[in-house]
Amino acid sequence: MIRTLMGGLKAGVKEPLLASKRRQRQLVRPSFIDYAVTWLCNARCVMCDTWKLCQEDPKAGKDEMTPAELDGILTRDAEFLSEIRKIGLTGGEPFLREDLVDLVEVLVRHFPKARISLVCNGLLHKRIVKKLPDLRRVCPDLVFSVSLDGMEGVHDKVRGIPGAFDKALGTIKAALEAGFTVTSGMTISELNYDQIKPVSEMLSSLGVDFSCNLMEAGVNFNTGGQAPPLPPEQARVVARDLEQFGHHYYMDHVREQLGGAKRTLPCFSGFTSYFLQPYGDVAICNIIGNSLGNLREQSFRTLADSESAWQAREKLANCTCWSQCEVKNSASVCPSHVLRWLLKSPNKGRIVKHYAGKAGILPQ
Predict the structure, then answer these.
(1) Do the domain assignments include residue 263?
(2) Are 219 and 287 contacting, i.e. CB atoms less than 8 angstroms apart?
(3) Residue 12 lies in a domain
(4) What CDD domains does the annotation carry (predicted)?
(5) Which residues neighbour 2 within 8 Å (Cβ) at sequence distance 6 or greater?
(6) pTM confidence score
(7) CA 325, CA 276: separation in Å to the nearest integer?
(8) Whole-angstrom Cα distance, residue 230 to residue 310?
(9) How far apart are alpha carbons 36 and 186 in whole angstroms?
(10) Residue 355: inside a domain, yes or no?
């Protein structure tokens, strides 16, 4: 409990300092890295076109950073990356990389105190089950996340793969049996807007933490422009079903935004967090894909302190997206926003109990 309180106090003290440094163009060491280890994907999701990259790009899957390259880059940039405390591994589908365990081992060696999470679609069930013991060996505290976008046929339709639900659910259960902390996320669309309640209840019965987000457009999804909004009637259904998650910072704000509320959380993407792409390119976030440069050619600090990086940060001053990865990172260094949400919420008791449980202070 003391560690949690001290962490919140430390972040609260640093928050105005971070804002001041960003205004004055003074670089800080990042705290968070999201790393897409491959663009290859074996799903055909309606909300994401990343899988098309392997058809459009002849080098897809052939020129990704190897574990040895990553090791060399992290050794070179150790000083600048010395304050990393969370790493999110994503794709594409990470388990399409045969050397995924080796990549995780490199990250654990360089960042032994960082919280590492991995998001997959669960389709490669047999391969994943075989790799779980090795992943458990190199990173016992890995947070294992499997996407689930609806019950049975609905999930299959969203993912564009027959039998996807059974494989994803089987992967969730296998990861639980292997001893991992398991979470699951849903991307809400017109196909599954009514699936929040049944999916969340099923996952809760398994002891799996659930979250959901609206469709997004950006580099991590190989899409441009704006993601299509839900029709009004569907948006009302989603907002109603999200009322049960008033204790959940991210989803409670999704509900508010469906009702017309605007984002008020400052964005620290590209300042305290970055998005690393498979071939070594560094981007501000997983939505804005303009590369700041490549780590194979320049150091992380050089790319982060470039003129293009500072210009990109200025463009984020009025960011309105609610991308889950980016929001969580910004909220972690902006506790005043979380505190204001807590104080105005009628669910204060549930909120405190929920997050105290996640921190291990109280039983969940």
Answers:
(1) yes
(2) yes
(3) no
(4) Radical_SAM, SPASM
(5) none
(6) 0.92
(7) 13
(8) 34
(9) 19
(10) no
Of the chain, the end-to-end C-alpha distance in Å amounts to 15
Residue 183: its H or E element? strand 181-188
Q: How many domains does the structure of the chain reveal?
A: 1
How is the beta sheet containing 32-36 ordered, strand by strand? Answer: 209-214, 181-188, 143-146, 115-120, 86-90, 32-36, 273-276, 281-283, 291-294
Residue 10 lies in a domain: no
Tokens of 331: 């909220």
Enumerate the β-bridge partners of residue 212: 186
Q: Do residues 183 and 128 make contact, with C-beta atoms less than 8 angstroms apart?
A: no
- Comparing CA positions, the residue from 278, 276, 211 lying closest to residue 33 is 276
Inter-CA distances, 307 with 25, 267, 303, 312, Å: 10, 19, 9, 9
- Per-residue pLDDT tens over the stretch 38-93: 999 999 999 888 888 777 776 666 789 999 999 999 999 999 999 999 999 999 99
Count of all residues that appear for the chain in the document: 364
CATH number at residue 276: 3.20.20.70
Q: Identify the domain containing residue 149 by its residue range.
A: 29-334
Q: Is the CB of residue 173 less than 8 Å from the CB of residue 181?
A: no
